[in-house]
Amino acid sequence: MNRRDFSRLFALGGSAALLARDGTALTVTQAPRPAPAAPDERFWKDVRDQFVMPSGYVFLNAANICPSPLRVLDAYFDGTRAVERDPSSQNRQKTKDGREAARRALAAYLRVTPEEIVITRNTSESNNLVSSGLDLKAGDEVLIFSDNHPSNHAAWHLKAERFGFSVRAVEQVNPHPGADYYLEAFRRAITPKTRVVAFTHVTASVGDVLPAAELCRLARERGALSLVDGAQSFGVLDVNVAEMQPDFFTGSAHKWPCGPKETGVLFVNKAVHDRIKPSIVSLYPGDVGISRTLEAFGQRDEPAMIGFAEALALQTTIGRAAIERRSRELAHMLIAGLSRISGVKVWTSIEPDRAAAVVSFLPGDIDPRKLHQVLYETERIVCATRTGADRGGLRFSPHFYNLQSDISRTIEAVQRHVRSGV
Ligand SMILES: Cc1ncc(COP(=O)(O)O)c(C=O)c1O
After folding, report:
1. Largest CB tally within 10 Å, which of 19, 161, 180, 386?
2. Ligand 1 centre and the CA of 233: distance in Å?
3. Is pLDDT of 8 > 60?
4. Cβ(122) to ligand 1 under 6 A?
């Protein structure tokens, strides 16, 4: 019996354990269901059972990459198998249709139109399509945020050298000084030469939230374009791009949406379709709107896009507001618990309008790299290290597949290791 047959067999009967070839237990589940008004741990345990991570494995690194639920793996693998069985262009047309369905799913998820969606490889590519595709030259300025990811920071510097425009940065302040502070800092920094304001919705470093809609409005009022890097908000916050009104919004499927690896999105506001040129010119563009020019990347992995749509469908079924509340609740538990450990310095704000689901902290005197390793090896707790002088330490990023017991276990483990050393 293969996994799908098994899955069908148990579709009505709840979850059941299945042994994979390597001996690890996979759990096969019922279809996901909508979160009730006040979901309890049993509900979230059912969500956790959608994933193939073995029980007892605590994954707290969503800001880096997320696991895909079984349904997404099945959609992706089934699509791949269908292509491999019959790689003819006639058969592949079906997966090409899946790509356009994925575009519609992405548009609905972001609350925009399919004509504004480009399916890329990831946030890095999306950000770079913007910095390479705009007509910027000597005398123009781009205003960035100092805590942007390299794909939205170093990339602008490199292109400034190449095309002759200049880059200025609004400095990040720790602890987070509040939305008004950043709004004012950007307002002061914009000049008549500013053509683009490029910032990160939620930072990967410590999870600072920037007031995206207000900053986009400010850019618009000053005649500049806005690029919002949504790598750490897309798929966890209930982002409404129609309300935010950026000119460009970027994200990755393989982070918080829990889609297949190497798929991503670039939203291009229809008001600026004539302002951006393709950086890659090849065959096989998308069917509608801006994808007809910007998405001609040659042959693609369409089954991955079908998996992307399945990941968005799963989140939509559970409820995006419920997922946001859950991730925030777990992050809040982490901040509160870590703050109580003597010697630990939490970098992330506990204020909900300043933080989301990324939590960074300095674990007292112990070497974060050693703690990172010992957590993984002895506790099966996965997180990220933050090396370097800027608010270094460890980063935990919980998501809707985590349980409260994961968080208590993690806090207890950090406390034990900080006390005894590693
Ligand atoms: C804010 C931000 N932007 C962009 C990226 C790049 O994402 P990807 O590797 O999926 O392109 C990351 C990755 O962590 C990120 O945190």
Report:
1. 386
2. 11
3. no
4. yes
